[in-house]
Amino acid sequence: MVDYRESLVVTNISSPLDSLHLIIQPHGKETVGCLEAIGFQPLPLLPQLLYQSVTSRQLAQIFLQISELLCETSQAMSRFFMTRSLLESETLLVDFLQAQPLSAITHSVKYAWFLKILAQQRLFFKYQPIFSLDSGQVFAYECLVRAKDDQGKDLNGSQLIEAGLSTQLAYEFDELARTTCIESICKTKSHQTFLINILPNAIISNPKSLEQNVQQILDLGLRPEQIVFELTEVEALAQSSNLPQMIKQIQEAGVRVAIDDLCGGVSVDHYVMEFRPDILKLDKRLVQGCSRYPLKQILLKSLLESAHEWDVLVIAEGLEDMEDIELCRELGVDMGQGFGLAMPEVHLRQKPFDYLDYSLYQAS
Questions:
Q1: CATH number of 315's domain
Q2: What is the DSSP string of 234-292?
Q3: Are residues 122 and 92 in the same domain?
Q4: Residue 52: which of 38, 68, 70 has the closest Cα?
Q5: Number of domains in the chain
């Protein structure tokens, strides 16, 4: 079997002996067309297979090109192998028995930057203020994970989570992000409240990780009530019978819990009764444009009424327009977060949100 790692090593030798044949069994006509567009051609002995002759130094770039060109399904359903055998050799059939899904290598190449970030623990955080919509004072900060690639370009949370899911390392990423975040909060020397995002499936797969986070909070001298674990992936919350008990345990230790991304089709009563959260966050899809759409206003009022009946605080996410901010304030939404209030920053913003200053700024 060909050692693919060895094949990816860059060498200074460029001779016929260094030439490899990258052979792919494509998934469907569309995949064939895409591969032929970048130089692959039918194998003489087996025309249903495509090949391209490459040097070892070209392999990483070829796989990267393929990862950007083919959809996830095509990468998973297509198979590949590499050989130094002659294209007319019958040993190709034996080599073909060792073929693997194309995605096995394209993901590794495409997300090599992510693997390096995890290995070197190169995560940092920006803090987006969450304001009381009544007073304009800073109530808390949401910790938003970031990283930089080798060229110094910022990578946002969505890009990091996508890479984690694609490489099946989302849970490892989530645990590293939580641990790093708590360390970062300690370094701010702030007594404010901080919201830390958690993927529910990550703690379900490793129940001990939350206990370790709580112990880390105590060891660093932080007050447990400063920390709010924000559970994302609302749909996943109902998939584990153990999750409510895990949440109860960390709340008993003093850490608070928020449920993120609640939208119009969600029953607040169900999540409140099941998980007893301290805070509910309204999804930006419901919040944005609420001042212009009566249906959104009806849904907002219903969610607010249910949450406040249970003494649960409500945060409106994605606030950008002053009209939406004002409406949420009038409806009684407790807190707001969004680019219209303040951008995420590396340093903690202490300045309150001034409605009058914002109105004058918008008018100018």
A1: 3.20.20.450
A2: GGGGGG-SSHHHHHHHHHHTT-EEEEEEE-TT--HHHHHHHH--SEEEE-HHHHTTTTT
A3: no
A4: 38
A5: 2
214 with 336, same domain? yes
16 and 100 co-located in one domain: yes
Residues 74 and 168 in one domain: no
**CA 206/CA 186 separation, integer angstroms:** 24
- Full pLDDT tens readout for the chain, 364 residues: 334 333 333 333 333 444 688 999 999 999 999 999 999 999 888 888 999 998 767 877 888 889 889 998 999 999 998 887 777 777 777 777 788 898 888 877 888 889 889 988 999 999 999 999 999 999 999 999 999 988 888 999 999 998 888 887 888 899 999 999 999 999 999 999 999 999 888 888 888 889 999 999 999 999 999 999 998 865 566 566 778 888 889 999 999 999 887 765 555 666 677 778 999 999 899 999 999 999 999 999 988 998 899 899 999 999 999 999 999 999 999 999 999 999 999 999 889 988 766 554 454 4
Against a cut of 0.90, is the pTM above it? no
Containing structural domain, residue 300: 114-363
